[in-house]
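Field: COMPLEX_INPUT
Field: COMPONENT_COUNT = two
Field: RESIDUE_TOTAL = 231
Field: MODE = joint
Values follow.
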Amino acid sequence: MNNRLRVLRAERGWSQAALAERLDVSRQTVNAIEVGKYDPSLPLAFRIARLFGQPIEAIFHDEELRDNAAQ
Amino acid sequence: MPERKGGAAPAGMRRRMSGSGQEASGLGTCFLGQTPRDRRNSAAILIWTAIWAVTFTATLWTIKAGLAEGVLTWGLAALTAVTSIMLLRSYVRFVREADEMIQKLYVDALAFGFAAGAIFFAASEVLAALGGPVYDNNELFTAMCLAYAGKVVWNMWRLR
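Field: COMPLEX_OUTPUT
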């Protein structure tokens, strides 16, 4: 699953640690989500969406869904 | 503030948002990438491990040296059991309250350690039957711990 977390964070000038603190998770978790090595739980995805004031689907993209839609 | 849109933030988040600029930068409470809660729980494990190690070693040494008898022996054994339970409790608390990805890494490592122990046990039984070296429970436990610790380090490195 791809996401725009790094872009949204950069737009606000936040470090990974600062974002981690706002989300109440570890910096490693933020990094792993950004590089696509870890998919957050639904509650965390909602917290991220709330923090950036955007719907979940505007931040996280399901590649499989996109490929199916393209076909 | 954009983060205020879309509903109220969780209690922990609200507390941090209302903090100083240093806290908001992530430098104040996110030292070494851990959340303050994880750091506190990790410290509790270290403290209880140290207490348990001292109690266990002292109890064993006292009993083997014949310095304690009767009720005192049982008292020392009970003290070791209590510190063991406190250590176990602190570890369970750490895993249960850990950040969700860290929790996943530790549970994965526990499964790996358990599987490695089971394999080591089965393999050592077969080897012993074939005339190979005989391993005792301490070595089995050591193998499990090493596999667990190695997997934790590997998982952390992979998702650093």
